[in-house]
Design goal:
heterodimer; A: alpha/beta; six-stranded mixed β-sheet; 34% helix; B: seven-stranded mixed β-sheet; 32% helix
């Protein structure tokens, strides 16, 4: 993050003149994540998801698989969902700039560990700038995010909110798909605070509905 | 007064629609009368929409201290006020978050540090955000001379100032000042969720 900005996303028009400032990134909630990580280590909880992220082919063994993040767009998202047909899929849309997201990320990752074998696949999608991939990866690593992790090619833009249908433009945001690949629940934080319990309950219900 | 009643009905209608549908349509339609608001400013004075009667257009922005997206837009708001002050545009920043670091004492610090050239007001009732249908920070509403909603959504199309291509808010202000149709009246706001009390 502290590195000079590369400019492969070339600005157009007056934008560049008006805008020589950088996006700040506040490590909100990092301490809490540290504690969680510590707790995982102490309890010897070794994450070995049944459904490992595509970019990671590490075998589940004594060593935890490497945490990875891949850039994707709406087509990539559709493909990922398609690959997991038959499983319940939870998608956690987050960003390093979103404090509440980072507070809730450990919960999402724990779900993968807890319910992966029961048929849940957890996907995280960061809406950070692609240039901030390192910062994204750092947060994911701090959380031992052995989930399948993606980064929107469109970054923190309106396009991201559009293509992923985040209607209220607000993070945190979750989408939950049933085993048929149909969107079953959307948890949007725009009008109210999201209770993590409701996500858990919705997942449990969808997992109970066996593939028919 | 009748305007108020009509507005309340409209709000109810929209609320019913929103409850019946997953699609998060804006709570206020373009052209709807702008709801009032009130709160305490970083100047310790009470502020309300009526205080800005003289302004041709009001840019009401729901924002806060902590959210990095809101922070990323601070300088853009300061610049906006600078550029449009002489044209009769007034930026008014509202914070409604129920969160440590986002309440009045910290807002005062931020306004001082950044040199905000616009009022920064705390509405702890959160009613303003409910009435406008604000969901995140920052989320802007442009009120035209008749104090109707002329534009709502994002300030521009990218959190990163280097990557901005569409200046939605500026385009809307220019249109309103010129008495023209606003090219895009609704865009998708982006940011951190408003921290609701309940």
């Amino acid at each position: 993050m502290g590195k000079p900005r590369s400019s492969h996303l070339a600005p157009r028009g007056a934008a560049s003149a008006r805008a020589a400032r950088r996006l700040p990134a506040l490590p909100e909630g990092a301490f809490r994540q540290g504690l969680l990580l510590l707790a995982l280590v102490v309890t010897g909880c070794s994450p070995s998801p049944a459904d490992a992220p595509p970019a990671s082919d590490a075998r589940a063994g004594p060593d935890t698989p490497p945490v990875t993040v891949e850039l994707f767009d709406e087509q990539g998202f559709a493909d990922v969902l398609g690959r997991h047909r038959g499983r319940v899929v939870l998608v956690d849309f987050w960003a390093t700039w979103c404090g509440s997201c980072k507070e809730q990320l450990p919960h999402t990752i724990a779900l993968q560990e807890k319910l992966g074998e029961k048929g849940l696949t957890v996907i995280t999608v960061s809406l950070d700038d692609p240039e901030q991939k390192d910062a994204v990866l750092r947060v994911l690593e701090e959380n031992r995010a052995t989930t399948a992790n993606y980064l929107s090619q469109y970054g923190g833009s309106e396009k991201s909110m559009d293509v992923f249908a985040i209607e209220d433009g607000t993070l945190p945001h979750y989408k939950l798909y049933d085993r048929q690949g149909k969107l079953a629940h959307t948890f949007a934080s725009g009008g109210r605070n999201i209770e993590l319990d409701e996500i858990d309950r919705a997942i449990a219900e969808l997992l109970r509905a066996k593939a028919s | 007064m009748t305007g108020r009643v009509t507005l309340s009905l409209a709000v109810v209608a929209v609320a019913l629609f929103a409850a019946a549908s997953c699609f998060a349509a804006p709570k206020l339609e373009t052209g709807a009368a702008a709801p009032g608001f009130s709160g305490t400013g970083v100047d310790d004075k009470e502020h309300s929409l009526e205080d800005y009667k003289k302004a041709k257009a009001v840019v009401l922005v729901f924002t806060c201290n902590h959210c990095p997206v809101a922070i990323a837009y601070q300088d853009r708001l300061i610049q906006l006020q600078k550029d449009y002050e002489s044209k009769g545009v007034q930026v008014v920043a509202l914070c409604v978050n129920d969160r440590d670091g986002d309440r009045l004492p910290d807002m005062k610090k931020r306004a001082e540090e950044k040199g905000f050239n616009f009022p920064y007001i705390y509405d702890e009732t959160q009613e303003s955000a409910r009435e406008y249908g604000a969901t995140c920070t920052p989320h802007v509403f442009l009120l035209c001379p008749e104090r109707k909603i002329a534009y709502q959504g994002a300030i521009d199309d990218n959190n990163n100032p280097d990557n901005v291509q569409e200046h939605y808010l500026r385009d809307a202000i220019d249109a309103v000042l010129a008495g023209k149709e606003v090219p895009e009246t609704v865009t998708k706001q982006r940011g951190c969720s408003i921290k609701w009390s309940k």
